[in-house]
Design brief:
The structure is a single chain. The strands form four sheets. The chain has a ten-stranded mixed β-sheet with strand order 1-2-4-3-7-8-11-14-13-12, sandwiched between helices. A two-stranded antiparallel sheet has the order 5-6. Strands 9-10 form a two-stranded antiparallel ribbon. The protein is built from eight helices and 16 strands. It has helices spanning 2-14, 70-77, 79-86, 129-142, 158-169, 234-244, 299-302, 341-346; strands spanning 31-35, 42-46, 57-63, 89-93, 97-99, 106-108, 146-156, 176-180, 188-189, 192-196, 209-214, 249-255, 260-266, 274-279, 308-315, 320-328. It is globular. It has one domain: 3-Layer(aba) Sandwich (Rossmann fold). Strand 13 (260-266) and strand 14 form a beta hairpin.
């Protein structure tokens, strides 16, 4: 009897169970600019058309190129429509460092020790973009919107370099990264800029990487060189990610089509995979060919043969489960791991 009374008292003192938070950052199928806590910064959030207030969703950060902004990136990427079809949140923030004025005003990302397109190296006085983006994850999770285990990053050019930096310093917060013409594996080594500096990229775990580039890119050339923030070849960055991930097989070259090829490393720790897709004739300097280069492109509309036969692991930043195989086109291929098993089965 005493035990029963003690148990009842404990239940009464505990009070009613707290209801699960309801995500209220915007109506399904719309994009809203929301303030992230007390950071003083905002993020444009696209809520998929199929979203339910009580269900936590995968979250993809979409990072604009240097001098751009999140709104323009969201509009040009086509990722909102993909999110509506497959049920994930898209967060399109602005970089923390403003550049330009008036109609030319934009933003760049703070990658410590690396000069921006202005030639200036960020200082301690500049906004900490890593802290802001990881804080945004926490805020969206606390709101009941995002699933912390299924958070991804992709970005174009300068946004691709920032995506790579997140993989280096926040691997415990992101399930996978997909830089578009921006794959880096740390800063260029001071004594030999043709190699990445291993001291500047020490991810906490094996990071799945799927990178995209065009072989005619003159801004971030795949063979290396270019501006001070670039320098070493994309292949060197890919090899370094494979080394960091403990990959035991590769690189293997796979021809995807007459104009697209993949380099892949496999048998990595925790089921990770490291791969790059390079498109012949594609560039980044505003050329329409960039539409064929990246996880948010519509490559298969122009090149049906570029559909990928990929092994998709339902990875998360904390765990990995079963592997499924499916055929799917380039649009957001790496984020298929963030979707539901039912969607995965529909692709078989």
């Amino acid at each position: 009897m005493i035990r029963l009374l003690t148990a009842l008292a404990a239940l009464l003192l505990a009070g009613p169970a707290l209801a699960a938070p309801r995500c209220d950052v915007g109506a399904p199928g719309t994009a809203q600019r929301v303030a992230i806590g007390d950071t003083g910064r905002t993020v444009l959030i696209h809520v998929p058309a199929t979203a339910r207030e009580t269900k936590r969703l995968p979250l993809i950060f979409l990072l604009h190129g240097s001098g751009g902004n999140g709104a323009a990136m969201l509009a040009s990427s086509g990722l909102a429509a993909t999110a509506d079809r497959h049920g994930f949140l898209v967060a399109a923030p602005d970089g923390g460092i403003p550049v330009g004025e008036g109609a030319t005003k934009g933003f760049v990302w703070n990658i410590p020790g690396v000069p921006t397109i202005t030639g200036k190296v960020p200082t301690a006085a500049d906004a900490d973009d890593v802290a802001f983006l990881t804080g945004a994850i926490d805020w969206l999770a606390a709101k009941g919107c995002a699933d912390r285990r299924r958070v991804y990053a992709t970005g174009l050019s300068g946004g691709g370099r920032m995506t790579s930096w997140l993989g280096c310093v926040a691997a415990d917060r992101f399930a996978a990264i997909a830089p578009v013409v921006g794959l880096r594996a740390g800063n260029p080594l001071a004594s030999d800029p043709q190699r990445p500096d291993p001291a500047t990229c020490k991810p906490a775990r094996a990071m799945p990487v799927l990178a995209f580039a065009g072989d005619q890119d003159k801004v971030n050339p795949v063979e290396g060189g270019g501006a001070g923030y670039w320098q070493y070849p994309m292949a060197a960055a890919l090899a370094r990610w494979a080394e960091l991930g403990g990959c035991r097989a590769g690189p293997a070259a796979v021809l995807l089509s007459e104009t697209a090829a993949e380099q892949r490393y496999t048998r990595c720790r925790r089921g990770a995979r490291v791969a790059s897709h390079i498109v012949k004739g594609a560039a980044t300097n505003g050329s329409p060919t960039m539409k064929r280069c990246g996880p948010f492109s519509r490559a298969t509309a122009a090149e049906p043969q570029a559909a990928l036969r990929v092994r998709l692991r339902n990875t998360s930043s904390r765990s990995a489960s079963r592997v499924e195989t499916s055929t799917m086109p380039w649009p957001i291929a790496f984020t298929a791991a963030s979707t539901s098993p039912a969607f995965m089965r529909s692709l078989l």
